[in-house]
Design brief:
206 residues; alpha+beta; 2 helices; 16% helix; disordered N terminus
């Protein structure tokens, strides 16, 4: 009897496996524009929907003289991501590799349109909402802007604490116009706006 039950369970698992693999493949498939640009970039915890660099410092609800960027007069890179079910994220998980291979640690994370904070209670998003987007903020050298080609700066997001079999996520970061803040979360389309410069993302009508 035990062997019969085992065979039934094994058969059920084998029957379901192709469906599971197909679902995993579909969820990991990146969105693309008609020109072939990948606009939603998969990474270990979910999908990057937007990547922007700006000279304008974003809003902080809480700041501290004891917790500040290691870079003087930084530019700022913001990633807007959607997390996969069961994933969490913190300011300690990821680092950004710039166009000249400089490495930058994440400085803050935030939910939706909330302001950033260095409050320890806001360092980690433990229970993300499945319908919300999350923001990761990286202070980077101003010289990263000089690496832009067609208003895009190539960068890579990689896991900070250990290596995985999944390759780091590589993408182009949109240079925001002089004096412009980051794009509001509410303006980010579900199919993503990665690898698109400001004109392509917001002015071309595509």
């Amino acid at each position: 009897m035990f062997r019969f039950r085992f065979l039934l369970i094994a058969a059920a698992f084998l029957a379901a496996a192709p469906l599971f693999v197909e679902a995993q493949t579909e969820s990991a498939s990146p969105s693309k524009t008609a020109s072939g640009k990948v606009t939603a970039v998969p990474f270990r915890a979910g999908t990057i929907l937007s990547a922007e660099i700006s000279r304008q410092k974003p809003q902080f609800d809480v700041e501290s003289q004891f917790d500040f960027p290691a870079i003087d007069n930084p530019a700022w890179v913001e990633l807007i991501v959607k997390l996969d079910q069961g994933r969490s994220i913190s300011r300690f998980d990821y680092e950004l590799v710039g166009a000249q291979n400089d490495v930058y640690s994440c400085f803050a994370v935030a939910e939706g349109a909330d302001g950033y904070s260095v409050d320890a209670d806001k360092w980690t998003i433990q229970k993300p909402h499945p319908l919300k987007y999350y923001r990761l903020l990286f202070p980077v050298k101003q010289s990263e802007l000089a690496s832009a080609s067609k208003e895009l700066v190539p960068m890579t997001l990689k896991l900070k604490l250990y290596k995985t079999i999944q390759d780091p996520a590589t993408f182009d970061v949109r240079v925001m116009p002089q004096g412009s803040n980051f794009t509001r979360v509410s303006s980010i389309r579900p199919e993503g706006l990665c690898n698109m410069n400001y004109h392509e993302a917001f002015e071309s009508g595509k």
